[in-house]
Design a protein that fits this description.
This protein is of the alpha/beta class. It contains 10 helices and 13 strands. Strands 4-13-12-11 form a 4-stranded parallel β-sheet. A 4-stranded parallel β-sheet has the order 5-8-9-10, with helices on one face. The protein starts with 8 loop residues before the first helix and ends in an 8-residue tail after the last helix.
């Protein structure tokens, strides 16, 4: 079992005092590093008149921590504080990442302890404390200059998703995609977050330039009728942000390519590296001059495979790619850890000896070189 290392009281106390003071000073301040919302020009993402391309990392715990494994903890779930959020986003910036992607909004599970923090507690009922943590993410993202992609619902059980929305009404997961009541319930969440006013900046989420776009969900196995309905609903509420299809697929569909409410396409890849490259190249050709396309997730493979996949993505003018996944410092000391099924650990900047088994530092250094290289700029020392 992983146990977090403890740091001295004085260091922890001073860090918390500093960020508490910083929060007090910046409440009500809407300062941002961004001038433009991200738009599209055929198959390119655009930041004003400049193309936006990125090599970066998924940061799943940015707004909601799943790996709080202190021996005294009653639950592995907790919310990040400002120190942790700043650590995560500053790391993305140091790595050359212009964009990061969170994981989904969590949903209350049946029969679980009410002490467990979730974003969605019931249809139209939300945990304010959890959304305040996301508010802090968006405040810091604006200040540091990292855009955030927010997927709205999960296909899987880990944080609660489609099955949990259905369970609120004693219905099956399959009904989530077709039942009018369940679709209405989910739309309440969509409306809540898009129209939410950030408690730190005063900015409505739909007016926040640090949000790159809304992703319909994470790896959804949804019928296309559901996807186009939700994409249209997002568009009806938010005229500023792009809508990203959150499908569970390694290949793009004709339906999504032709849907006027879906702006950007993406895929996840955990198959063999040669098949991954073939799929990415084919997807780019398929979407060329029509819609932007990026790789939302990939990784959990050997360094040589990661390098070949990233370089193929850059060489074929794909808009971006994000590896799974970056974890940040724990406010109580050390890093948050999350072991994947194949033994690969998370990436912790700048890389450590304990990560040699999965070539942590080598991969981090490579990703950083390509993050700056995609814009043909010199890597900072």
């Amino acid at each position: 079992m992983y146990r977090v290392m403890k740091i001295g009281f004085n260091r922890r106390y001073i860090a918390k005092l500093f960020y508490s003071l910083l929060s007090f000073i910046t409440i009500g301040c809407s300062s941002t590093s961004f001038v433009n919302f991200v738009t599209m020009d055929k198959d390119k993402l655009m930041d004003g008149d400049k193309e936006l391309r990125f090599v970066s990392f998924n940061t799943p715990n940015l707004h909601y921590i799943e790996d709080y494994l202190d021996f005294n903890a009653s639950s592995p779930w907790r919310l990040p504080d400002e120190f942790e959020i700043r650590d995560a986003l500053s790391t993305i910036k140091e790595l050359g990442g212009k964009v990061t992607r969170t994981y989904v909004l969590s949903v209350r599970k049946q029969d679980e302890s009410k002490k467990i923090i979730r974003h969605v507690l019931a249809p139209g009922v939300f945990n304010e404390e959890a959304f305040v943590a996301l508010d802090k993410v968006m405040q810091v993202a604006n200040e540091i200059g990292v855009r955030v992609i927010i997927p709205l619902v999960d296909n899987w059980i880990w944080w609660g998703g489609s099955a949990e929305y259905a369970a609120f009404r004693n219905k099956s997961k399959e009904q989530f995609w077709t039942d009018p009541q369940l679709i209405s319930d989910f739309k309440k969440t969509v409306e809540f977050i898009i129209n939410r006013r950030n408690t730190y900046t005063g900015i409505l989420y739909k007016d926040d330039k640090a949000i790159l776009g809304w992703e319909t969900g994470n790896e959804l196995q949804a019928p296309f009728n559901w996807t186009t309905d939700i994409a249209a609903y997002i568009k009806s509420l938010d005229k500023n942000h792009i809508v990203i299809e959150g499908v569970h697929s390694t290949v793009l569909s004709e339906q999504a390519l032709n849907d006027p409410n879906i702006d950007v396409l993406q895929t996840h890849h955990y198959t063999s590296f040669d098949q991954t490259i073939k799929d990415i190249v084919r997807n780019k050709k398929f979407s060329k001059n029509k819609k932007p396309y990026f790789v939302g997730e990939f990784g959990l493979t050997a360094p040589e495979n990661i390098k070949a996949i990233v370089d193929s993505t850059i060489d074929n003018d794909v808009s971006g790619i994000m590896i799974w996944s970056l974890r940040f410092h724990n406010r109580d000391g050390g890093f948050y850890m999350h072991r994947e099924n194949n033994g690969n650990g998370p990436f912790r900047f700048p890389g450590f000896e304990s990560g040699e088994v999965y070539n942590e530092k080598e991969i981090i250094d490579f990703m950083r070189s390509r993050a700056f290289g995609i814009d043909k700029v010199e890597i900072p020392k």
